[in-house]
Amino acid sequence: MKKVAHFILIVLTLVALSWALWRGLKLKHEAAGDHEGVVPPEAAAEEEAEHEDFVVTLEKEKWKAAGVEMAEPEKAELAVQRIAFGRVLDPSPLVALDGELAAAEAAIAASRAEYDRAKKLMAVGGGTSPKVFETAEATFHADEIKQSNLHRQSALQWGAAMPASDAEKRRVFVESLVNGDLALVRVDLLPGDAITDAPRAARLLVMGREAQPISTTHISASADADAKTQAQGYIILVEKPPFPLRPGMALTAWLELPEKPRAGFLLPRSAVLRHDGRTWVFVQAETEKFVRTPITLDSPSEKGWFIAADAGLKADDLLVVEGPQILLSEEMKAAAGTAGEE
């Protein structure tokens, strides 16, 4: 009898514990549901403090005296682009190819003249032997084949960039490469990227010369892919570069595609700040209040930087176009003063 009573007591204890556990879980779930979407006061305070860190308050007389100027961002459109990376090519192989083509042209001119002379003599009744005629004909056709092979080699290596078939144009072209009036650039897309339609223009940025972008429309697809990345490549011809393009110079290219352009804003370079590994601009919130706003730069241009319409600015923002570094210095001073008071 005692064993039965003991067993019943254990069962009742387990039931009570199970009910208590179920009830606790239910209340916890209901509490979580009631507070869903509510930001905890600590998190809200941190977010507000972080936002306040990007605000600079400066009297109107001071920011005017410091040369701070504002303007609304300039609306602009940017053609759809693909980024590519490359280098300036060494023209030495082209100089060597030009020499081979010139030698082939001289040889074919001589063999053609000899072949035509032997052909005329044979036509008038034996002014030359058949063997001499056959030798002249074979030499002429061999020179034709050699010249044709050199033209194919040029097309495979350089595409439409090299005017191989026109001796005078080719001579001027090679001389311009040697003198620096022309430059050839090889760029490759990122691995896995591909372009169906041929680019209609390119803008080049040479490392260390980012403030001097180079624009060109002379673009042809390369015959080969990059050996390491297997990326699609292009040969770009630059006419009268604004500074010497030395072989091996690294550069970035934006290839313009024939698609509908994107809307956005054009920012002057003087408005853009680089701080803490990000890019920023200052926007005037009130007469004496400026907010440091993060932005995402899209593409450089001769006037500055293009950013997309959704990259952090609005059309009616008053953008600090002169003196943002002064405001950043004031912000850093204020932050240092606050830290010192603490």
Keywords:
4-stranded antiparallel beta sheet, 7-stranded antiparallel beta sheet, alpha+beta, Elongation Factor Tu (Ef-tu), domain 3, conserved putative lor/sdh protein from methanococcus maripaludis s2 fold, rod-shaped, 7 helices, 342 residues
Description:
The chain has 342 residues and is of the alpha+beta class. It folds into 3 domains: 50-76 and 262-341, conserved putative lor/sdh protein from methanococcus maripaludis s2 fold; 82-89 and 182-256, Beta Barrel (Elongation Factor Tu (Ef-tu), domain 3); 92-171. Helix content is 42%, strand content 27%. It contains 7 helices and 17 strands. The protein has helices at residues 2-34, 41-52, 60-65, 92-123, 130-158, 167-179, 324-341, and strands at residues 55-57, 69-71, 74-78, 81-88, 182-189, 201-206, 214-216, 218-221, 233-239, 250-256, 262-268, 273-275, 278-286, 289-295, 299-300, 304-308, 319-322. Strands 7-6-10-4-5-9-8 form a 7-stranded antiparallel sheet. It has a 4-stranded antiparallel sheet with strand order 1-14-13-12, covered by helices on one side. The chain has a 4-stranded antiparallel sheet with strand order 3-11-16-15, with no helix packed on it. Strand 6 and strand 7 form a beta hairpin. Helix 4 (92-123) packs antiparallel against helix 5. It is rod-shaped, with a radius of gyration of 37 Å. The chain starts with a helix and ends with a helix.
